[in-house]
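Aim 2 progress update. The chain analyzed this quarter is reproduced below.
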Amino acid sequence: MKKMHFCTGIGLLLIVISAYPVFVLLRENIIDHNVTNRYDIHYAYQDKQGYEHAIDTQNINILNHHIRIIEAKTGKHAPLTSWDKDENVPAGEIVNIQYQLDGRDLSSPSEVWLSNRERGGRYFSWLEILTVKDRKTDQNLVYIVQRITDDQISLEKSKWKIIRIHQDGTVKEKLLSYSDRSKDPLSVKLLNFSYVGGNSMGYHSDMYEVIPNVIFPLLYPLITVAVGCAIMIGILIIVIVQKIKGVRKSI
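Predicted C-alpha cells:
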C-alpha cells in the first residue's frame, strides 16, 4: 500500500509540474494551426526570375493598386554591430518612410534602418509587403508590416505598425505591441513570416522559440507528463483489478 501511495505521489507530481508548459505548447500549436489553415500568406514582391522575395523596390502594383515607398534622408546612420565591424561593412542609412496608395499618403512617416547588406532586401527585418488570402471570407488583402522600434530595443518593448489594404482601397492601420500580440494572431504570423518581428515570437508565449534540446521539450515536459499519466493509469488499473477480485471473493 505504501508503495502505491508513493507511486501515486510521483505520478501526480510529474503531471502537476508538466501541466502548464504542456498547456502552453498545445495552445501555441492550436493557434498556429488555425492561422495557417485560414490564411494563405505570400510575399507581394517577386524578383526578376518570378520568385517571391523580400521587398526590394519602392514601387509595386498589387490587387489593382499601386503602392509606393518614399524615402526621405535623415542624415543619420545606424550603429554598427560587432559583425559589421568584423566584416568591415559600412553603416546603413536611417531614412523616414512614407507610404502612398494610388498617390495618397498612408499613415505618418517613421524611421527605418536600411539594410547595409546585399542579401535579404533593402528593408530586411524592418518592413515588408505581404498578400493574404482569407480562406474563410474569400477576401484578398495586402498587409504592410513595419517595425517602429529599433534594434537596440528589446523584443518585449518592441512595437509594429500593421497596415491592412482591402481590394476596394479601404485601409485600416493599427499599432501592435509585444504585450498585446496575443489579441492578433494573424499579425504575429505575418511578423514571423516576414522576419519583421526582429526576433521570432509566439502568440502567447515564446516557449517554442527557444532552441530545442533533449531536456526541453522532449524530457520536460513531454516525457515527464507522459510518465506521470502512465503511472496514474497503471495505478487506476491495479485498483480496478483489486476491486473486481474483492467482489468475486465476496460472492
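The first strand starts at residue 39 and ends at 43. The chain has a mean pLDDT of 92. These observations will guide the mutagenesis experiments scheduled for the next reporting period.
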